[in-house]
Amino acid sequence: MRYLYTGQLSPSGWDTARLRILESMGRSVRTVGYRQHVFAFGRRVGNLQCKLGVGPGIWQYNRDLLSAAAAHRPQVFWVDKGDLVQASTLRAVKKMTGAVLVNFNTDYLACGAHPWRLHMQGIPEYDFYFTSNVFDVDFLKAKGVRNVVVVPLGYYAKVFTRPQLTKEEEERLGASIGFIGHWEPATEVLILELLDRGLPVRVRGNSWQHARNKRRLAGVVETGLVPQADYEKSIRATKINLGINSTMNRNQTSGRSYEIPAAGGFLLAPRTAEHLEMYVEGEEAEFYGSVDELEEKARYYLEHEDERRRIAAAGRRRCLSSGTSFEEIMARLVETVEAAERGAR
């Protein structure tokens, strides 16, 4: 089966992880990433093109997609997120090759932080739309998507190998209470509240340069992507890992909801319907419904190491048996898409 696969395709991106899994399944895959086109003249110009949805980089990117489709004759055109793919490109690929058009998107479509103009125009063209956000399902169906499928955010099993930690790594990477994730206004407010209550918190992740209270967060926040080689070790070296969800994406879970237990870490996350379906509270993970409850449970589990380790081990077993690894998710989605392609023939 021949695929044309497109997305940002940065080396550490989860879209690249899905691509590698697809290749490992023996599919013939032609890739086109947009970064080399859109950011050819620097980050500032690239960001402006992304925001406006127009510009020479975007036009060249879409031309390259059409050229790749003409050369590779894909049976499936897989678009990961696809915020810069034009609707006319989707229609042209469909007309040229008859490919099944697929979109995989983990972001909330009403989130104003994302430039969705081109994406919105192309939504009706897709045969399949895989989303991680239940709040988008009715909207996508109303826009005319033929098949809308909700998928879990999941975890990339390949990178969770449970490496041994040295003493130096435990001290360098660990924390009493840790959060690894991007900045959002609501997340900053929560972290500040925990600091005000005297809890020992360490924060690492992207976009924290946008924090509004940098002085209060000094010494607590380390801005920047945690290297993949350190990510799992950081979770394991941290006593309590916070699984704060994105409010901008209106998430009931996050990638951390899967990655923390997969790494063998102790997960303390918001009490949502999806979290309660994933793990037994108090046995496989812990949840909170308020800052008061978060503080209470954090203090308790910092003092009760045996319970913390028992819950972390049970959470890992549940996660690994849940079928939510990227590898397992991709196998199911590929089977669904390829069955539709065969049926269309």
Give a written overview of the molecule.
With 345 residues, the protein is α/β, with parallel strands linked by helices. It folds into two domains: 171 residues, Rossmann fold (3-Layer(aba) Sandwich); 164 residues, Rossmann fold, CATH 3.40.50.2000. The strands form two sheets. It has a six-stranded parallel sheet, with helices on both faces. Strand 11, helix 13 and strand 12 form a beta-alpha-beta unit. Helix 1 packs across helix 16. The two termini are 13 Å apart. The mean pLDDT is 94.
Task: For the structure shown, list the relevant keywords.
six-stranded parallel sheet, globular, Rossmann fold, 12 strands, 345 residues, single chain, alpha/beta
**How many alpha or pi helices?**
16
- What is the number of domains? 2
The CATH architecture of the largest domain can be named as 3-Layer(aba) Sandwich
Beta strand % = 15-25%
Secondary structural class: alpha/beta
User: What coarse outline follows from CA principal-axis ratios?
Assistant: globular
Query: Gyration radius, to the nearest Å?
Result: 21 Å
Q: How many strands appear in the DSSP assignment? A: 12
Quick one: biggest sheet? 6 strands, parallel
Output the CATH topology of the largest domain. Rossmann fold
Q: Tell me, what is the CATH class of the largest domain?
A: Alpha Beta
Strand order of the largest sheet: 2-1-3-4-5-6
Sequence stretches where pLDDT stays below 50 over 5 or more residues: none
